[in-house]
Amino acid sequence: MTINILELDQVCNIADSVYFDVVEHLGLYDEMIQEDPAHKDSAIRGTENTEKGQELYYLIENAVKNAIDFQE
Are 33 and 50 contacting, i.e. CB atoms less than 8 angstroms apart? Predict the structure, then answer.
Protein backbone atom coordinates (compact mmCIF):
# COMPACT_ATOMS: atom_id res chain seq x y z
CA MET A 1 0.00 0.00 0.00
CA THR A 2 1.34 3.40 -1.00
CA ILE A 3 0.74 6.40 1.22
CA ASN A 4 1.02 9.82 -0.39
CA ILE A 5 2.77 12.21 1.93
CA LEU A 6 2.19 15.01 -0.56
CA GLU A 7 -0.96 16.09 -2.34
CA LEU A 8 -0.92 16.68 -6.11
CA ASP A 9 -0.89 20.47 -5.69
CA GLN A 10 2.19 20.15 -3.45
CA VAL A 11 3.92 17.98 -6.05
CA CYS A 12 3.10 20.60 -8.71
CA ASN A 13 4.45 23.41 -6.51
CA ILE A 14 7.74 21.53 -6.04
CA ALA A 15 7.98 20.79 -9.78
CA ASP A 16 7.22 24.44 -10.57
CA SER A 17 9.95 25.70 -8.22
CA VAL A 18 12.53 23.28 -9.58
CA TYR A 19 11.53 24.08 -13.18
CA PHE A 20 12.03 27.82 -12.76
CA ASP A 21 15.29 27.31 -10.83
CA VAL A 22 16.66 25.12 -13.65
CA VAL A 23 15.48 27.50 -16.39
CA GLU A 24 17.00 30.49 -14.59
CA HIS A 25 20.25 28.74 -13.64
CA LEU A 26 20.86 27.52 -17.19
CA GLY A 27 19.71 30.76 -18.84
CA LEU A 28 16.98 29.01 -20.82
CA TYR A 29 14.11 31.44 -20.22
CA ASP A 30 13.69 32.44 -23.88
CA GLU A 31 13.84 28.82 -25.01
CA MET A 32 11.39 27.47 -22.41
CA ILE A 33 8.91 30.32 -21.81
CA GLN A 34 7.03 32.53 -24.26
CA GLU A 35 4.43 35.28 -24.13
CA ASP A 36 0.88 33.92 -23.92
CA PRO A 37 -0.94 35.12 -27.05
CA ALA A 38 -4.23 35.17 -25.11
CA HIS A 39 -2.83 38.00 -22.96
CA LYS A 40 -1.12 39.93 -25.78
CA ASP A 41 -3.22 43.07 -25.41
CA SER A 42 -3.85 42.69 -21.69
CA ALA A 43 -2.39 44.90 -18.97
CA ILE A 44 -1.41 41.68 -17.18
CA ARG A 45 1.59 39.97 -18.72
CA GLY A 46 0.93 36.31 -19.36
CA THR A 47 3.40 33.60 -20.23
CA GLU A 48 3.24 29.94 -21.11
CA ASN A 49 5.75 27.18 -21.58
CA THR A 50 7.05 26.40 -25.03
CA GLU A 51 6.83 22.79 -26.19
CA LYS A 52 10.36 22.23 -24.85
CA GLY A 53 9.39 23.95 -21.62
CA GLN A 54 6.39 21.66 -21.21
CA GLU A 55 8.58 18.61 -21.76
CA LEU A 56 11.04 19.78 -19.12
CA TYR A 57 8.28 20.60 -16.63
CA TYR A 58 6.64 17.18 -16.99
CA LEU A 59 10.00 15.41 -16.68
CA ILE A 60 10.54 17.23 -13.40
CA GLU A 61 6.99 16.59 -12.20
CA ASN A 62 7.28 12.89 -12.99
CA ALA A 63 10.66 12.71 -11.22
CA VAL A 64 9.07 14.20 -8.08
CA LYS A 65 6.14 11.75 -8.31
CA ASN A 66 8.51 8.81 -8.78
CA ALA A 67 10.72 9.93 -5.88
CA ILE A 68 7.79 9.75 -3.48
CA ASP A 69 5.96 6.86 -5.23
CA PHE A 70 2.97 9.14 -5.84
CA GLN A 71 -0.27 7.42 -6.79
CA GLU A 72 -3.28 9.38 -8.08
Answer: yes
Q: d(Cα 34, Cα 37) in Å, to the nearest integer? A: 9
Distances from the Cα of 18 to the Cαs of 3, 15, 40, 41, 72, in angstroms? 23, 5, 27, 30, 21
Q: Could you give the CA distance from residue 68 to residue 63 in angstroms, rounded to a whole number? A: 9
Q: What is the pLDDT of residues 43-60, one digit of tens each?
A: 778 899 999 999 999 999
Q: Cα separations (Å) of 3 from 61, 65, 69?
A: 18, 12, 8
pLDDT of amino acid 7 = 85
Minimal CA–CA distance to 15: which of 72, 67, 52? 67
